[in-house]
Amino acid sequence: MNLPAVRGQMDAARSIAFQREVVRRVRELPGVRSAGFINHIPLVVKADITGLGAEGHDASERFLSNSRVIGPGYLQTMGIPLRRGRDINERDVDGAPLVVLINETLARTLWPGADPIGRRLVFGTGNSVPVVGVVADIHQSGLDVAPKPEFYVSALQVPFRPGSLAVHTSVDAASMAAAVRQAIWSIDPDQPVTAMATMEEILDREVLQRRVQTTLLTGFAVLALLLAGIGLYGVLAYLVSLRTPEIGLRMALGAAPVNILRTVVGQALGLTVIGVVVGVVAAVAMSSVLRSLLFGVTTTDPLTYAGVAALLMCAAAAASYLPARRAMRVDPIVALREE
After folding, report:
1. Boundary (domain end) residue, out of 154, 174, 197
2. Which structural domain, as residue segments, surrounds residue 318?
3. Long-range pairs for 257-261 at CB < 8 Å and ≥24 separation?
4. Per-residue pLDDT of the chain (339 residues; tens, 9 = 90+)
5. Residues 230 and 190 in one domain
6. 268-307 burial, b if ≥16 CB within 10 A, otherwise e?
7. Domain check: are 38 and 162 in the same one?
């Protein structure tokens, strides 16, 4: 949820007191597991870039990094693992030594292979701030965007910019909306509370365009598979009708119906194998087109290709079943008389 009136309207002491009281009262609500402030909820605001220097690098060397201002409890609320060191806590307030957390990507960028705990970031203001913890990478800028270098500073140590409160509940999040609002208004009745949304809703908005595109592609793929199955059925039915005399002769000479079935289905699967090979080559060649539509899978994922190939083979077997059954039931006498 956003608390827009907080921005720029409180001095440091009042903002710290406000944050603490809001988080305390919200955490006391039945069904709330944790809560914490942040300036930008992930995926909502995707860029807040800062240039900084680092201990062990030339003073003129600058690195670009995303930044976030968070309060105590935020990492726990969002389920972001702490990989090393400590989290920001209630002692990291205005007047205490400044501290900073960094993500794994920034740690690898600045100090590859070394322990970043205790090393310092140098900001444009001239402040040299020690790293007290390393947190896991998350997709702040988009599900299809690789995690970027990022650091976190304490909302209790900087001018109060966080305008969003993250709340983790053990019950349906929507059912807690009114109670959370009342907890905030019990502290400041004039504080607007806007844009309340669950992370599921935020994720749905993030993937909406790609979901529509994927749904359309899936629909076209199902239609193409259906048309291919109908086409294969038609071709095999025609071939069976042409080979009726041959099939009748084979059966008259003692061929078992199962052999006729194997011949027809085998012919269908042979054609399908050729099509699958050609399709796989074409799919690999055009894989870059689909890269922006995929999450958690590569464009050359072998399991995906194997699954699609198996699906096509099953469709071909199903399409060839009726012509094969018809071939099995050919009366040798009728077939030879037609010949």
Report:
1. 197
2. 208-338
3. 257/328, 257/329, 258/328, 260/324, 260/327, 260/328, 260/330, 261/324, 261/325, 261/327, 261/328
4. 666 544 444 566 777 788 889 999 999 999 999 999 998 888 887 767 788 999 889 888 889 999 899 999 999 999 999 999 999 998 988 888 999 999 999 999 999 989 999 999 998 777 899 999 999 999 888 877 888 999 999 988 876 555 789 999 999 888 888 899 999 999 988 888 887 888 888 888 888 887 888 889 889 988 988 888 888 778 777 777 777 777 777 777 777 778 877 887 887 788 788 888 888 888 788 777 666 666 666 777 788 888 888 888 888 888 777 777 777 776 666 555 555
5. no
6. bbeebeeebeeeeeebeeeeeeeeeebeeeebeeeeeeee
7. yes
Query: How large is the greatest C-alpha to C-alpha distance in the chain, in angstroms?
Result: 105
Q: Are residues 44 and 190 in the same domain?
A: yes
| Residue at 218 is within a domain | yes
Tell me how far CA of residue 323 lies from CA of 61, 211, 261, 317, in angstroms: 73, 38, 9, 11
Q: 3: buried, middle or exposed (CB in 10 Å: 19+, 13-18, 0-12)?
A: buried
Q: Which of 28, 73, 1, 30 is nearest to 171 (CA)?
A: 30
DSSP state of 334: H
Alpha helices in the chain (DSSP H): 12-27, 74-78, 104-110, 177-185, 199-242, 244-252, 257-285, 287-290, 302-328, 332-338
Helix (H, G, I), strand (E, B) or coil at 171: coil
Tokens 């299809």 locate to 144
